[in-house]
Amino acid sequence: MARYHGEADQATVRGTPFAWTSTLFNGSRLPSSNVMGNRSSVLDAVPSELIQYVQVAKALTPDWEGDAIGGSVNFITRTAPVKRKLGISMAGGYNAFSDNGTYNGSLVYGDRFFNDKLGVILVGAIWDRQWGSDSFDVSYNTSYEDAGQRNSINSVMLKRYMGKRQTYGINMGLEYKFNNDHKIFFRGLYDKFNDIRPVYETYVNYNSSQFQYNYRYSYYQTRLTGGEVGGEHQLTSRIALDWGYSNYTSSYFLDTPSTSDQKGLPIATFKQNITSGFNNLSNDGLRYWGFDSPNGVGGKPMKFDAGINDYSEVLDPTRLTLQQLVISQLDNKEHDQSFQLNLKADPTTRLKLKAGMKYRTKSRDSYYGSNFVYLPGAALGIPDSPGLVALSDLRREQFPIGNGYFKGMEGNYYRYIVDPLTKQQLFDLFQPSFLEANGFGDYTSASNATNIYRATENVLAGYIMADYALTDHFRIVGGVRNEYTMTTLKGSQATVSGSPAVTEITPAKKENNYNMLLPMLHLKYEINDRTNLRFAYTRTFVRPNFGDMTPGESMDMTANPIVVSKGNQDLNPTFANNFDLMGEYYFDNVGLLSGGVFYKDIKDVIFTDVSYYTEGGSSYVLTQARNLQNARLFGFEAGINKRFDFLPGFLGGLGAEVNYTFIDSRVKVPRNLSDGTAVRDQSTLPDQSKNMANIILFYEKSRVMVRLAGNYRGKSVATINQNLGPDYYIWTASNFTVDASATVDLSDKVKVFLEMNNLTNEPLKQFMGDSRRLTSCEWYGVKGQIGLRWDIFK
What we know:
Blueprint: E1 2-4, E2 7-10, E3 21-25, E4 28-29, E5 51-57, E6 71-77, E7 85-95, E8 100-113, E9 118-140, E10 153-179, E11 182-205, E12 210-234, E13 239-253, E14 265-273, E15 321-329, E16 332-345, E17 351-366, E18 370-376, H1 377-380, H2 423-428, H3 432-437, E19 440-442, E20 453-469, E21 474-497, E22 502-528, E23 531-542, H4 546-549, E24 553-556, E25 562-566, E26 574-586, E27 592-603, E28 606-615, E29 618-627, E30 631-643, E31 654-672, E32 678-683, E33 691-701, E34 704-713, E35 716-719, E36 730-732, E37 735-745, E38 750-757, E39 764-768, E40 774-779, E41 783-793
Parallel strand pairs: 3-6, 25-29
Antiparallel strand pairs: 1-2, 3-4, 5-6, 7-8, 7-41, 8-9, 9-10, 9-40, 10-11, 11-12, 12-13, 12-14, 13-16, 14-15, 15-18, 16-17, 17-20, 18-19, 20-21, 21-22, 22-23, 23-26, 24-25, 26-27, 27-30, 28-29, 30-31, 31-32, 31-33, 33-34, 34-37, 35-36, 36-39, 37-38, 38-41, 39-40
């Protein structure tokens, strides 16, 4: 799982890149309103109480959707029970970082009526929690011509999040059995995830000798709604048919600020000149970490000292002046409709046949990266403009300290704290009357429209497969799946010409159609009743993200350096030929020993290229998705789940579950040196960890269950800088988290449970080239809850 600010939000199989794992909902892809424009479904929008069980597939069969190189995770929602069920769950908890409480509750009701023909299930859940995190972020001058100065520091930022998250969900299911051979069903859901997080950013900018302070009120809303109907029909004793239609919509949106006709993420930027200068600059006048500095002057990241000559020169509300207002549009909406039909036939007791088709139509509307920008005339040097507004002249509130400020680093960083604006004051800055009175002009780029696009995607898929028991011990499953994809993106492009320069916006349209023929073969040999040997060959693929193919480009003016994201309309899908050889042995006490090897031959890997440049005195980061040449991935995995019931007495309840995966992935990245020489750098695949492990110690006996789980994920490349090479790749550092849970059955119907997360307060780190050269380090603290589950009817 990937943890976003401490909460799991994406899943991956075998540690492959997250985009390579298909997240399904009752067998179909969920629409994704992910703000970054990728296809990953955000899991924190769906309460876990709505899920009945989870299927994980490492090697697909033709009846699964084929866009999954890593594997598929299928979440199955609750269905009507065989008899009356009524249960409630209530819990309260504590977040050690925010120093606040949390609560959640759920209700599950199910029953059958009309002689058990009609089944009903209703699930409701709510989860409300306070949260927070500290993030230490560093940007470097990688755009400099002098290679020796590219590791010098542009700016350092201390960012504090402190907010609230709310997850609500309602899941309803109906099932009607006409008889034992015919059944129809309906599933519907309404899920809402609110991510409310005021953000406080303090920059020390060495290139411009300035403090910069950003305050934003982030109220992100994600809504997932929809439903599906279907039926299962036994036509004859050997022929069955099932069908389904689904209609789901995912929306990501903001309704702020209330004082402006433009809606999005409101951000106010204040700046203050550092007049006393710095005392820890290198002999070339630039700031480095000590190990990078030409003469060893600089210090170390985890004990940051800004090195300001006058230590009393801190963030001063009377000197911090308002120099930019931005409303960043981040809205995304995705709508999916699909229809599928499957036909099953059992001609003999040894042979099973299955065939089917699926049609899905998807539409996506995105406003990500569209910014409305307002600048004061005084900052631009316009004569007779009103003076700049100081932070001290505006309504403010106390800074949220929580349980401390950057306690994960050595030293005291309270000097980088300043009391922020109130939420309403931030909103009031965008009132037309305030903008006019203080000389703010609308400097929204004419090319803003190029960030807005609409995408449609139609997929027609069909498959045929056979499951044949050649002997009592040898089974063959094989077949082929074909998926034809038709993608259209409509947006706009900006053309600058003339003197003075004039920006002309013209419509842009891109079509990208491709066919995927996906043969698959599985062999299973039962050596004995407890031992299996499996082999699989599968061909799978990954579609390009819509956000990577957009005709326009977006610009984040609030970041330092400014981030420019550009689409690539010529991206190809990524294909993989996958080979798996696995073995498994089942113990007589429910345990399992498994292991094997796997290999993937991959074509047209998609990666995010990052390059840096300077223009007009400002620093920019340009990101763009591109295809790499062929890659390969080899790995092996081993796992054991064993209960120690051979031990005497109390010790007989102990057990362990351990699994380990090793993956060696390699891809060649072409690059041109300054003298024009072409080279090919070797890299691992983006977001691919070489080593992963889970270690779970548990105790299960009588009415008690206790689990202590350690999860390790090795380092992985996060972004590739194709222009500068491996020394400037951004890596995600290795990470080891420890969680714990316990359940005690007070009776057959009542359970008390305890859950604890991130017990070691493990930070999430990223670095550039050298593990000491941090680009970010985030802490989000320990959290936990205790609660009660009561199955009134079960």
